[in-house]
Amino acid sequence: MTCARPLRILLVHERFPPDYAGGGEYVVLETARHLQARGHVVRVLAAGDPAIESFEGIATRRIRMSRYRFNGAWREVAAMAGDADLIHCFTYHSVWPAHKAGRALDTPVVLEVLALFDDVWLEMRGPVLGRAFRAMETRLLRLPMAGRVFLSDTSLALARSLGLGRPDDLVIAPGISLADYHAAVDKPYVLFAGKLDVRKGIEVVLQVAAKMPDVPFRIVGWGERYDEVAARCPPNVTIERFKDRHHLAEVLSAARVFLFPTKAETFGLIVAEAMASGCAVVSTSPLPFAGERIVADDADATAHAVRALWTDPARCAEAGRRNLEAARQFSWDAHVDALEQLYARIVARP
């Protein structure tokens, strides 16, 4: 343990497993699991079903409200953080209530920036709501915090370019559960996995698949657009709903090329997981990977990049081997080591 003593830590996020809507819940779960394994007292506050009082041995309190109403739950945060050494919150809807509760209790608050989208909000939500969400994002990143964590250098660089960076900001890459991933011998398809929305580039995926009718594509996705996307898939695309991370690991293992033309990504956990599965990667992700780096929204160039890898099995396999090796750096132990160092500095302050 990096900290001199076990700490009492309240993690606050709008969702917590088994509720799932993306990689954020996974980051919170693994953070809680690894902190608890090191002897810290960890509790989680989220929106959800109050009947679920723990998940995989982690004590939780869930408030029956929408994630948007969770922005007003500062009293609930304060009640649960009364004996906490610190509060650790995650963007977006837990930041304001954690900040306000921390001020009321004089308890330090750490912010972990899971998402920073800036102008991509305009595409995701339209010109009116998009501007409102972008303004909300900016406001949250201007709140005073005892410490702030970004997931990648790219995400921190964007914050700085928007005038939202601070000298003591840290970059701490998340981990992945390396033991869950492996590379299958037979790799018969190009894979996209993620939420089926404009930010993740699903439109480009469908266009690329249509340009390559001789190549099998597979999509594993979730979100309110699932039925619409499924109805528009070309004949060479197999689509299925996301089930759980273990099933996703099996699907990743058999992908020869992982295609992920995201428009905005603070890290890209799914890309790291694809790397650990021995996939060649075609993506806009900020992670360093072997394969082809593309530009968002360019379907022709993306199709060319996928084709170049697909028709060169030796190059594709070599990229997969290099990605397998590079993925070993994404360790939850390393992530929590850095968090503990940050926590220790914060709780030692007068």
Give the structure's gist in a few sentences.
This protein has 350 residues and is α/β, with parallel strands linked by helices. Helix content is 40%, strand content 19%. The protein is built from twelve helices and 14 strands.
What does this structure look like?
It is a single chain. It is built from 12 helices and 14 strands. The protein is globular and about 65 Å long. Helix 6 packs across helix 10. The mean pLDDT is 95. An 8-stranded mixed β-sheet has the order 3-4-2-1-5-6-7-8. A 6-stranded parallel β-sheet has the order 11-10-9-12-13-14, with helices on both faces. With 350 residues, the protein is α/β, with parallel strands linked by helices. Helices cover 40% and strands 19% of the residues.
Mean pLDDT: 95
Largest sheet: 8 strands, mixed
The general outline is globular
Computed structural class: alpha/beta
As a whole number of angstroms, the C-alpha radius of gyration is: 20 Å
Strands in their spatial order, largest beta sheet: 3-4-2-1-5-6-7-8
Secondary-structure element order, N to C: EHEEEHEHEHEHEEHEHEHEHEEHHH
Q: How much of the sequence is in beta strands?
A: 15-25%
Share in helix: 40-55%
Total beta-strand segments:
14
Number of helices: 12
Topology overview:
Blueprint: E1 8-12, H1 23-37, E2 41-47, E3 54-55, E4 58-63, H2 74-80, E5 86-90, H3 95-105, E6 109-113, H4 120-141, E7 147-150, H5 153-161, E8 170-171, E9 189-195, H6 202-211, E10 217-222, H7 226-232, E11 237-241, H8 245-253, E12 255-260, H9 269-276, E13 280-283, E14 291-293, H10 299-310, H11 313-326, H12 332-347
Parallel strand pairs: 1-2, 1-5, 2-4, 5-6, 6-7, 7-8, 9-10, 9-12, 10-11, 12-13, 13-14
Antiparallel strand pairs: 3-4
